[in-house]
Amino acid sequence: MGCGTSIAVENQGKPSETDVSSRNPSPALTMKAAVLIQRWYRRYTARLEMRRRYTWNIFQSIEYAGEQDQLQLSGFFSFMLDNFTHLSGNGPDLISHLLDSVVEPWTEEGRQVKYEQITVPDSYTGPRLSFPLSVSDTNSLLSAFKEQQTLHARYVLQLLHETKKFLKQMPNVIYLSTSYAKEITICGDLHGRLDDLLLIFYKNGLPSAENPYVFNGDFVDRGKKSMEIVIILFAFLLLYPDHMHLNRGNHEDHIMNLRYGFTKEVMQKYKTHGRDILQVLQDVFSLLPVATVIDNKVLIVHGGISDKTDLDFLSSIERDKVKSALRLPKRSVEVVDPRGGSRSGRQGWAHLDSPCSRSRARKRKCHLSKQGSCSSTSSSSSSSSLCSPRLASRHTPQHHATSPVLPSPSDGLQVPFLDSFVSIAPPEPSREELEWRQIVDILWSDPKSQSGCTANSFRGGGCYFGPDVTRNLLEKHGMTLLIRSHECKQEGYELCHDGQVITIFSASNYYEEGSNRGAYVKLGPELVPRFLQYQVSRSTRKLTLQQRVSVAEGSALKALQEKLFAHRSELMAVFQQYDTNNTGCISVSDWAQVVESVLRLDLPWRTLRPRLTRLAHDGSVEYRSCFEDVSPGQPVPQVAPNLAETLYRYRTDLEIIFNIIDKDHSGLISIEEFRQTWKLFSTHLGVAVNEEAIDDMARSIDFNKDGSIDFTEFLEAFRVVHKLDVKDQQQG
Amino acid sequence: MADDKDNAEAILSEVHKKISDAFDLFDHEFNKTVDVREIGTIIRSLGCFPSEVELHDVITEAEDEEPMGYIRFERFLPVMTRVLMERKFRPITEDLLLQAFEVLDQQNKGYLEAEELTKYMTLEGEPFTQEEMEEMLSAALDPEKNVIAYKDFVSMMVIDDAQ
């Protein structure tokens, strides 16, 4: 049966092994040998392809699950803004104090520091910009950043103010022409990877009148040099306003930045003026144009389109009203303020009652009940939509007041009844909402190969648009090509919809060293796209496909192991429910089911199982083994295991909130602030937390005698290490 | 008897889930269809070693009467289940693989020249595409000596694959 056995049979009739003269196998035999090798090799590459595919899935699932956690965070801010909690008699309102300068820019000009008043010390050796900018300014910026220097806050603020002024007079959609230049270069996501930008400039030349560029959004977040990238891009924008164009991406959004690292980067690099810088950036981001059109034939947007996309409508919107895609426009409902103060006139939150249609065929399995409340809304179901942060939770769509955990009255924290907050659905979506949707669709949508347009529930925003949607829109406006970014592609670019859509992605090694190439595309007057690829690499040796897959896979599996660790108590509780005889083992099928429903990550668990757990002799899974490779980095302070895990899981969110509270960037917050923050957070999430346990823990961490907590130290305690890394280092 | 029946059902159920997992990995639209060009990868990732011809036969079975360029899960599942249960397309062992290389190594050198291997792989049997050939060479070729030490290559591949 098959080719496998035939060679063995044939070999029996061959000369013996001791015959040293050259053999002359028959052509038939040669062919059989060749086919065998080919079959084997194709199977080998198929396995590699499968590993590559699930590695990709892991990264993307965790990435998008993280983005939905982000919705939780913005839901948290919403919760606070809407419900007006305050500390009774304990100083100023923590919440508005908290949210004032970052989330809610109430007043514009008056509150911002005048950059002219900032003095630059003589000891500063970085670039000193002079406006209007000249080529020597951009050159000095490039060399400075190559030398790891930082631009002084004064110049940053000045640059940002000038950029803001400039962008205010730009339309939402920019129209370009190739007639005056040889080729226009279009770049995709950079995500703070300065090396990639420098590599592009090296290969393709700096922006100039002869060398125009379009950068298609997502300049910031994730990578460590987001600030440097925006400085360079804005500087070139001011220097060559007709030849340098920037489109807004979904990460040019202050709420996304809170979660994905840009806010943190700015606060760390600019301790004194970080907040001011972020304030102006918020405005600048919302003023970035949302689309670019070349020769009236090529449409360039960051995410994609929907069947509702209308370029004329899009052109008429006041784009800077949409500061963040994660903040819904206010409906015609007054937010009731129990204190009687007036809160009208702000762009408030609202809750849409009509969820976007869900079309994801894969349903989440929700039949396992949750043990404890650590699980609740954290890893939200990916069938949630952007429309309502509350819908992302598995509670009723109404409000969190029904959550089982409310602080006791003695804590002095008041949460007014939410029943008084009425959400009346007007029959038609408001104009604001339609405008918001236009922009969100442009920034968040993804193409798919089958027809139609459905809500992009995987990401939580925008749509999946099919080739018919593309064709219709392009035809309607007499265009031939849509260029977008937003999705990482292994080769840096990808065509779809019969060549009508190009995805261009410019951050190489996005997930991991070797995970993907970056690319840019050039368009000349004949509008035939030309792709250039590159890959930043630490080593000079080219990695084989197998090596690239292994490295990326290792990284993905580690991330997955951390997820398992973060949900350990819950997983163990359910495993033990299935393990009726207390053998420490359950069937593969049960294991996969439990993990999928607890982690809520739609991954091929059976395929992944061999990489995550051990099997017992009878083929069942030793479920404890999935936690073996990850352990706390330091001895965790004496706390209940549940608490440690919860803290580990929400490390990033807590860090963000701490950073916001810590207005003077000292790294310290008071015990009281810490306690109140934690209570708020846990209330919102419906997490049951023992007050005393938190207090004990706070006390057991070394803190300054003045009763403040070094929260960096506190969070360090909840870092994890991977056993294999430790072993490597020891062998090192 | 009842136990056996339960067992058989359990086994079948596991097989179905394995197939479903592999299928879903390539189902980009989340609507239980995959591009027909990815079926080979799916079948191979489930542990089968079909030749191109054998693959083509399986695809024909799983396609709709009017081939649409994609394969639906409802049709793929029974076909693939049978393939797995009947253990078609058995694995190729390390020994067999080594023997195959030895057959091609007509002069019994213990290694193959790059051109030799390329000639066989791209002209004989079910020929490689240029891309497949380049990939194999990048993994197999010793760049200094410009030869493929196939014994080492086979050992290495088998280890990689087994992980």
UniProtKB/TrEMBL annotation, chain A:
Keywords annotated in UniProt: Calcium, Hydrolase, Magnesium, Manganese, Metal-binding, Protein phosphatase, Repeat
Catalytic activity line of the entry: O-phospho-L-threonyl-[protein] + H2O = L-threonyl-[protein] + phosphate; O-phospho-L-seryl-[protein] + H2O = L-seryl-[protein] + phosphate
InterPro entries: Calcineurin-like_PHP, EF_Hand_1_Ca_BS, EF_hand_dom, Metallo-depent_PP-like, PPP_dom, PPP_phosphatase, Ser/Thr-Pase_EF-hand_contain, Ser/Thr-sp_prot-phosphatase
Domain EF-hand: 566-601, 649-684, 689-724
Disordered: region residues: 1-26, 334-410
This enzyme's EC code(s): 3.1.3.16
Family per record: Belongs to the PPP phosphatase family.
Biased amino acid composition, Basic residues: 359-368
Pfam family, one: EF-hand_7
Leading EC class: hydrolase
Segments of skewed composition (Polar residues): 13-26
Molecular function terms, GO-annotated: calcium ion binding; iron ion binding; manganese ion binding; protein serine/threonine phosphatase activity
Protein name as annotated: Serine/threonine-protein phosphatase with EF-hands
Cofactor(s) needed for function: Mg(2+); Mn(2+)
Biased composition (Low complexity): 373-388
A Gene Ontology biological process term: detection of stimulus involved in sensory perception
Automatic annotation (TrEMBL), chain B:
One GO CC annotation: organelle
Source organism, top-level taxon: Eukaryota
Molecular function terms from GO: calcium ion binding
PROSITE patterns found in the cross-reference section: EF_HAND_2
Tagged with keyword Signal: no
Stretch forming the signal peptide: none
Domain EF-hand: 92-127
Name of the protein in its database record: EF-hand domain-containing protein
Lineage of the species this protein comes from: Eukaryota, Metazoa, Chordata, Craniata, Vertebrata
